[in-house]
Amino acid sequence: QFPFSVGGEMAGVLLSTKRLVYRGVWPSALSLVRGGQLKATLQTHPPTIRGIASHSSLHHRQAQGRFHSSLTGGTRLRIGDVSVDITGPHNKQLLPHLPPIYEPLLSTQESLQHLRWMLQKDSLGQDMLLLGPPGILKRHLAIKFCELTQRQVEFLSISRDTTESDIKQRREIIQKTAHYIDQCAVRAAIEGRVLILEGLDKAERNILPLLNNLLEYREMALEDGRFLLHPKRYDSLLKQSHYSPEKLKSLNLVRVSESFRIIAIANPVPRYPGNPLDPPLRSRFQARVIPPLSAGTLQKILQETFNVPSHKQALSKNLSEFAEALAELEDQNSNTAMWRAQEFSQVKQLWFNSFLEKFPTGEPHPFLLRMYPYPLMYDSSHCNNLKKTLEKFNLTQGCDERLEVNHITDSKDGKRTKTVEFKLGKGTLTTLTVPSGPAPTRSLGYASDPQTQLHLAQMIQDHALGRDICLLGEKGSGKTYLIREFGQRMGYQLSETMVLYKDLPSRDLLQRRVTLQNGDTAWLPSALIKAALEGGLVVLDNINRLPQGSLSVLQRLVLDRQITLHDGTELVGGEEDATELVDPSDSLVDDGHKKKVLAIHPSFRIIATATIDPSSPLSEKSSFLTEEVLQLFQFHDIKPALSFSSTQIDQKMLQSLEGIYRALGNDEVPGLKMTPRQLKRLIRASEEGRSGEEVAKALKRGLLSRYQPAPTRLALDSLLARHSLLKFKAVTPRATWFSSGKKTAENSTESQGDPKRGSSAEAHEHLVPDPVFYEMPAHRQVLEELKRDFSVGEHLLLIGNQGVGKNKLADQLLKELRQPRQYMQLHRDTTVASLTQTPSLEDGKLVYRLSPLVVAARDGQVAVLDEADKAPLEVVGVLKGLVDGEMPLEDGRRLVSSALLGLDRGRDDEKIVTIHPAFRLIVLANRPGWPFLGNDFFRECGDLFSCHVIENPDVASEVELLREYGRDLPVELLKRLSLAFSHLREQVDQGLLSYPYSTRECVAIVKHLQKYRSDSLESVLENVFSFDAYDPLLKQRIVDAFRKFGLSLSNPLFLHKRQRPSPNDSSKHPLNIHIENPDRKASDPKHGKEDPDNKPHVGGNTWAGGTGGADTAGLGGKGGPYRLDKGHDVHQVSDAEKAAVPESVQRAAREMGRRALEEKLKELKMKLFDWELYQSYRDSVSLQISQLRVVLSGLRAASTPSRSWSRFLTSGDLDESRLVEGVTGELNVFKQRVQAAPDPFGEMEKKKKFHFVMDVSGSMYRFNSLDKRLDRLLSTAVLIMESFEGFESKYDYKITGHSGDAAEIPLVDYGSAPKDAKERYRILQEMVAHSQYCWSGDHTLPAARQAIKEAATDAESNDQSFVFVFSDANLQRYGISPRMLGEVLVGEPKVSAYAIFIGSLRDEASRISGQLPAGRGFVCFDTALLPSTFQ
């Protein structure tokens, strides 16, 4: 009962609904003044909302659980000394309301001051902009203002994906006709509503200025031809006799209501990330800063709102003071990361007090960590400071919390609730009734160990408090298992899963735009919206992949349980009696009044997941934990189990595997991590009786150690030896089941599957592959391993280089096991929809058929997915769900494993397609990394599969295979071919070559030689190696490889890039074209004339730069003084013609070439000795220069490119250029804003910058005679300077030195790269001089620190910033520890910094590199390995 003063008497209005009275607190102190009836007593200081109302002036809106006023003219609202007239709404559905828990925050004096200002701006007809830190207060003030003034609302959450069609008009196809549908801004302007735009700072540039004219002049031109007109101008036209309403309508003029207002909400930029407002847009708003509520005000509200026990009230106060202290720290230093706690002082404190109220004996610190996971956001020093501060406020109680769920009782009255009994740390019991799913409580048995039980109990506790949850953890840490166990215990049966990815449009989180079978456009609700309406559990998988700001569109849904969808539908929470459902087939019609309002079910919950890579820098791990995301969820840090129990394995072997797992987790082998899922697979392999050697082999396969650098492989071998894994013997001998494919374990469960329980081979004989397969030992061994894993229910991943036989092995496996195969080849344009369903046209109608993948899952067949690394990451994420036992289909159904269905087999089968227990996946993918250009499939979900690395066979096996294809060829020839190819592959492993030559190419050569015996070996080899003809150094390596094994390539033109086909290779009777030029006789050599037009010249002896001529400088001719390439095709004269050149002419040509060299040296001011010395350094790294240039040419921009329209999509904005196609029923008629793909032939928008910090200390010179470390450094400098030449538009580099004298010795500055050999040689001379004459000492640490700091300062203007610190590892002498160097290397997250040790005394370099952060230190004593190291 709220008392107020009326004419000196006391009166009251009793409002019993929870909507208006929450724990005895009047939410908004609202009463209404009916003019002329009673006189109100006004108070201006402090401001309050005053007025008089009769009991009949308020009524309940039963269907929506809120109240609206039946108002007539003359009603006024006053806040302090400001008053406005208000009238009742035309459409009560559009009146906003707030959840009751937030109402007290808006009844404070601080909030009333803001509302008073807003009332002033409204009375002046001005639009408003509310600025402040991320939080709910700005949005709630806007909503409360509209609620008080009885104004209808149009709400738009802005993101980077917001386009003009979201604001003005959107084109839809209805009954094969294109219609323009008014959107929020147009509807609000016409109907006189308030347009709330939340997140102005998140909009892309140049989108919001379309509102400028509407803001300033209340005018806007619409795409459908109408024109919005200012109300005064419209009314003035009506007053003229020749303008009637019908006339103005015929002129397409539409009146803007004088009640139309815009309230914009934004975070201040800078200080918070986002886009600053365009000045013309900013100038049209009246702005007000909305700071958080003061600690005193908030604490008073908390005391009045929550019934916190007296012994816990001190904790509530302490938390307020703690948050206030952090807010004060923010004001002192706005750059500190601790400013995130500012929002913690509002919403988080409401949650905390709710926890204290419902769990009076609960411990605060574990709950506080879930609200504010500071250990995941800050480094150790900040965390220690925060913890000490929490200790001062007595908020660290219960760090070792023991929370348990005793039992869960199903509701007996048919309601969707459960009664949960919690056992707290001190043994006290707390019982709560919580919303739940419709199914009875059951368990999947996942939560067996204490740590998992605790995680599960904390999730149920947060659920009981009405909070949504986010699980953070590394891959395979058990997040999926926890979600499923939680869902089963709380009756949610099956959860809806949304796989998130980087380019997911934020609108797709709510609805996805599609075309129906008749070509009409419609909006399909996402899994999130379906769960909200049905009261289900939805999983947002990997929110860390979304771009920053994308989740902001969910703030209202998560915090307020309200949301406005893109089709205009409004979802509101708290109602259980709404029966209207979203029908995607409804036509989109909006006459300004029709609007769906649907109820969000109270049982609706969200569980988000985020994958944290423990080896990533802190800035990467926590980058997605922005201020806005921190508000949305309770965060659970899921730590993987460190020990596993098994009674079927030697306990010492189990301990060995656990020790290896922990060692890899502690970065003892940089770059390698084992997930808990992989460890469990190894334990399962041990339970099958495999030996330690077999388990070690499986471990290496699962980590892809084959493709790791040599030091990493050696470190892994050392780790396995240290834990004695190889000593364990097999428990049982290798079984004979390889030929039959039967299971070895008699107790295999149904979920493991039996190949023979699927579709019979007899019924699907046409689906059983029958490949051309030749036996060889290497492939037989792989097949045995594949059969073993297949028989125990594993899904298989075959990964390797091209041409190694992945497809043949998969097909031969299925042939021997008699398994039907469904085949799909993935590619760049593969979508989730095409992965699950295939559209086809039948009888003029569009029909969707199940894809081969779904058919295989349904019928228990084997799905082979080829080229999986080419598929987009969102498709890969869907595969993860399928392996885990659940995948959504495009038509709304879901594939679900029988194990997950369990007791729910009798539920509605129309929405469920059961995954057959015998279903298997065989995925084929290329290895990750250069030169393969696909996605890193293994990194995304490789641990879900039993991974098998398929390599080229050994020489003996390969020769056996080649004999099958070349039965008539000499075995010795086949052996030498195999040895040559094997040698080339070894050079690829060493980083000397980039292309991995495969068995496929070798087989192709043998096939050709077998059929065309007369063709020479050289001509056949060119069929494979012509790709390398344009790289002379690479060509020479190939020639050397074949010559090494006795395959002499006698043709001097082998792989000549400008050669013509040899007549001997074309036919037995070749046709020759011979041109004799009597004038082309070699005479005295000369340079020749310069052609200003640079035309190609063939033959003759006139022009410089010609080809196939005589006497002049050029290419392919005879008797010229030196080579001169003008870029034209080369016409090569024969060797016979060359030999015919007189000796005198040859001698004169050599002399002229010598003089030309001297002139060049004179021009460079270099002596011949200097030239030769520089050339010696260059020659030592000539191949590496070529390799590094290949790497540099293949690099792509890493920074986020500008976003552009991508067309021909199946969802997004309707593409006006494809309206005709839409009417005809085509589906790809949409466009979306996406990141523009980099142009491989264009320039980068920003350059990559490289800073090379060279060690020119005295030890380099002193020990050069010992290990040539200074020579290696000089060769490295030459490698850098020569390789970067010609890439000035993409890269910029700087070289500095450090020695005992200084931390930065300038050698080459950005933009000043040496242009010729002379300048580069001068750099080498300076490096030698510094090393020879500098004072002893070491500046490695300050040099690295200075270079990294400089790179970080300029990082925003670069695409990427790299710092490479070269050192001879002579650090211990000067007290520099690996930890100190490591802290410097990872100190700036915007800079990629590395240490490369090119010299060492004893094992110092290896020791330091091994102790640096993973992937930051490299040992390179051979300059030949530098390109691969840089790569």
Oligomer: single chain
Instruction: Name the strands of the widest sheet in spatial order.
Output: 49-48-47-50-51-52
Structural class call reads alpha/beta
* Overall geometry: globular
Tell me the major beta sheet: 6 strands, mixed
Beta strand %: 15-25%
* Discrete helix count: 50
Radius of gyration: 37 Å
What is the mean pLDDT?
78
Q: What's the gist of this structure?
A:
This protein is of the alpha/beta class and 1431 residues long. Helices cover 35% and strands 17% of the residues.
Textual characterization of the structure:
- By secondary structure, the chain is an alpha/beta fold.
- 35% of the residues lie in helices and 17% in strands.
- The strands form 16 sheets. The protein has a 6-stranded mixed beta sheet with strand order 49-48-47-50-51-52, with helices on both faces.
- Helix 48 (1378-1385) links the parallel strand 50 (1360-1367) and strand 51.
Features of this protein?
1431 residues, 50 helices, five-stranded parallel β-sheet, disordered N terminus, 52 strands, single chain, six-stranded mixed β-sheet, 35% helix
SSE order and pairing:
Layout lengths: L1 E5 L2 E5 L19 E2 L14 E2 L7 E4 L4 E4 L5 E5 L2 E4 L23 H15 L4 E4 L5 H12 L4 E5 L6 H4 L1 E6 L2 E6 L1 H8 L2 E5 L13 H6 L2 E2 L5 E3 L1 H9 L5 H6 L2 E3 L5 E6 L12 H4 L3 E4 L5 H11 L7 H20 L8 H18 L5 H8 L2 H4 L2 H13 L11 E7 L6 E7 L5 E7 L14 H15 L4 E5 L5 H11 L6 E4 L11 E5 L5 E5 L1 H8 L2 E5 L13 H6 L1 E3 L5 E4 L23 E4 L4 E7 L6 H4 L5 H6 L1 E4 L13 H15 L10 H12 L4 H12 L6 H13 L54 H15 L4 E5 L5 H12 L3 E5 L6 H5 E6 L2 E6 L1 H8 L2 E5 L6 H12 L1 E3 L5 E4 H4 L10 E4 L4 E7 L10 H5 L4 E5 L4 H11 L5 H19 L9 H13 L5 H9 L6 H13 L18 H4 L39 E2 L6 E2 ...
Helix pairs in contact: 1-2, 9-10, 10-11, 11-12, 21-22, 22-23, 25-26, 32-33, 32-34, 33-36, 34-35, 41-45, 45-46, 47-48
